[in-house]
Design brief:
This protein has 615 residues and is mostly beta strands. It has 7 helices and 41 strands. It has a 6-stranded mixed β-sheet with strand order 1-37-38-40-39-41. Strands 14, 15, 16, 19 and 20 form a 5-stranded antiparallel β-sheet that branches. It has a 4-stranded antiparallel β-sheet with strand order 2-3-4-5, with no helix packed on it. The N terminus is likely disordered.
């Protein structure tokens, strides 16, 4: 009979070479399950809440306990209160919430605040609260213009703009409905293209604060899908325009509206084919708009440039692949002052940086069998780029710098191994670097542009070393056909190879979605649950398969129209490997996952029945 216990999941792959065993000096305390859920004694301190850069030499930091926003001089560390709740406590008493605001200007001089569905502008210089809407309709995605004088937002599928100087509101579109959405994304664009962080926002201010580019979605031909919302006292049936595979997507076009006159210029892109349009980007002058076209098969991408005067469309970049091509999101597309632009693309088989000159000539900036994860900073002239990459090993992500002419050397800026997340000042002089390794919780340092450490800004390690926690090991598991799959497991304290332990394999498994890195916790490894499992005598294992992104686009492309095959293959080999280990209880090997990981776990328990004992 199976006892009612948490069962651990086991990783399977043919050969395992331990890369590093990273265990902090252990204490004696044990975790409670309440701590896993977030209550009880905390093991970690919160890192400073950096709210962005005030200018090239100062950054904003929020004091969580006092609610005070400081402007901090990067070189000296001197703090000056920029926002003090004591100055507007009468507004707080009335229920206005300043952090987080609906939006704010870059210098924090103005806040956009939502209260009871209406929008208000708080002007710090005058200590004045200005109400800008007065109706019960839900307002979405209120956004300041770059100069801070106007606010754009959507109501019931229509786009509006408020001018704080004139005190007048202009309705920019008038055909909004459940089927027609202006500046507000349809569900499939929100979920699968623009992303959840967009909050359905589908409009973009020009740099000169004059124009707004927006997407218009016509969902008329998209079938409705009904589902039940069980969260209220009485169930509610909700109807949503939801395109299942093979059914029509929304028809999309891009308009450019003048925020003063209200005139709309529709980009003359008349193609009504079943395709996707997305990710408009303005040039620095606000005179032209770049936008992207992708066919529904998602293997043919075009970057098009639309000049407001004359009204012309030009093809600036094109990418075709036998499998799929990704959209160039905000982190992947940077327009330079001279009209060139810098992108991140996997067209070579690995994700790298390219520069497209005004002439259309393509220059590859980085190259090799390694991955650029993100473009972090590009100078105003587009000559120098900072990026996060995995040059030596796919499990480590560091910060690097190089020239965009493709001839400069790549210089590492961050120190040591681990995973680094960075924020760089607008002038490129300073770097805020937050990093961790498998056994070291997050730390934040302030660096110069050359990587020299100015000072520590925070260390999250509070009482971590007082607890008797799992020993973490990073290693690789070799498959029968030679893939070295990245793996990490958390072994019970006082692990004894002479004993038998249950194993729990925790996975995600989606294409290009790695969860194994040399970090304290990323992806499915966040939180204390892995340590709790180990404390209860369960080995918690995490493995990335060949399509996870560790092996470049070549590995990811194996999953194209072939979902399930290689995940089943590689996680089957993981199970076989686990069964070969003398310290594994062969009757207690489990697999678990959420979302795509739930699909893979269910696949292992059905199509791969018998490989894992539990799922």
């Amino acid at each position: 009979m199976i006892k009612r216990k948490l069962v651990a999941f086991i990783y399977v792959i043919a050969f395992c070479t331990t890369c590093c065993v990273l265990a902090a000096e252990q204490g004696t305390k044990k975790l409670s399950f309440e701590q896993v859920l977030g209550s009880g004694e905390q093991l970690f301190k919160s890192l400073p809440r950096i709210m962005g850069w005030a200018d090239g030499n100062s950054y904003f930091e929020l004091d969580r306990s006092m609610g005070i926003l400081y402007s901090v001089n990067a070189r000296s560390g001197r703090k000056r209160a920029s926002i003090n709740p004591a100055n507007f406590k009468e507004f707080i008493k009335k229920g206005f919430r300043f952090f987080p605001p609906e939006d704010r200007t870059e210098d924090f001089s103005r806040f956009l605040i939502k209260k009871n569905q209406d929008l208000y502008i708080y002007d710090k210089l005058n200590n004045r609260m200005q109400r800008i809407t007065e109706n019960s309709d839900e307002k979405h995605n209120g956004t300041f213009s770059p100069d801070g004088r106007k606010v754009a937002y959507t109501i019931r599928g229509n786009l509006y703009v408020y001018n704080s100087e004139s005190g007048k509101t202009r309705q920019l579109t008038s055909d909004g409905s459940k089927e027609i959405l202006n500046g507000y994304a349809s569900w499939v664009y929100y979920e699968e293209i623009l992303g959840r962080r967009s909050r359905y926002k589908a409009f973009w201010w020009s740099p000169d604060s004059r124009h707004i580019a927006f997407m218009r979605f016509d969902q008329t031909k998209v079938p409705e899908f009904s589902f039940i919302d069980y969260q209220e006292d009485y169930d509610q049936v909700i109807d949503m325009r939801y395109p299942k595979a093979g059914y029509p997507n929304p028809l999309v076009k891009i308009g450019i509206t003048d925020s003063i006159s209200g005139k709309i210029d529709w980009i003359p892109f008349e193609d009504k084919n079943d395709h996707y349009l997305a990710f408009p980007f303005w040039n620095k002058q606000g005179t032209a708009l770049f936008f992207q076209w992708l066919n529904r098969d998602q293997n043919h991408l075009k970057v098009l440039k639309y000049d407001l005067s004359p009204r012309q469309i030009k093809l600036k970049y094109e990418e075709i692949n036998q499998t799929w091509v990704d959209f160039l999101t905000g982190d992947d597309f940077h327009v330079c002052r001279d009209g060139s632009f810098v992108i991140r693309s996997a067209r070579s088989g690995w994700s790298h940086i390219y520069k497209i000159l005004p002439s259309g000539k393509l220059k590859q900036v980085t190259k090799g069998n390694w991955r650029v994860h993100s473009i972090e900073y590009l100078d105003v002239n587009g000559n120098t780029v900072f990026f996060r990459g995995s040059l030596k090993d796919s499990i480590n992500i560091g910060l690097y710098k190089t020239r965009t002419n493709g001839k400069g050397k790549i210089r590492k800026i961050s120190k040591g191994n681990g995973v680094h997340r960075t924020s760089i000042s607008p002038n490129g002089k300073y770097i805020i670097d937050t990093y961790s390794t498998i056994d070291t919780p997050d730390k934040t340092d302030l660096l110069t542009a050359t990587g020299r450490r100015i000072r520590s800004l925070g260390d999250s390690n509070y009482k971590f070393n007082e607890y008797q926690l799992a020993k973490a090991e990073l290693f690789r598991i070799k498959t029968d056909d030679g893939y070295q799959l990245p793996a990490v497991w958390y072994l019970p304290p006082n692990f004894d190879k002479r004993k038998k332990y249950p194993v729990l394999l925790t996975i995600y498994g989606g294409p290009d979605s790695p969860i194994v890195h040399n970090s304290f916790g990323s992806g499915y490894r966040r939180g204390l649950l892995k340590f709790y499992y180990a404390q209860e005598g369960i080995i918690n294992l995490f493995v990335d398969h060949r399509g996870s992104g560790h092996f470049g686009k070549k590995g990811v492309d194996l999953m194209h129209r072939n979902l399930g095959k290689w995940e089943l293959n590689d996680f089957t080999q993981v199970a076989k490997y686990l069964r070969s280990l003398p310290f594994v209880d062969k009757q207690k090997i489990g697999i678990t996952g959420h979302s795509y990981g739930g699909y893979v776990a269910a696949l292992m328990m059905t199509k791969g029945a018998g490989i894992y004992n539990f799922g």
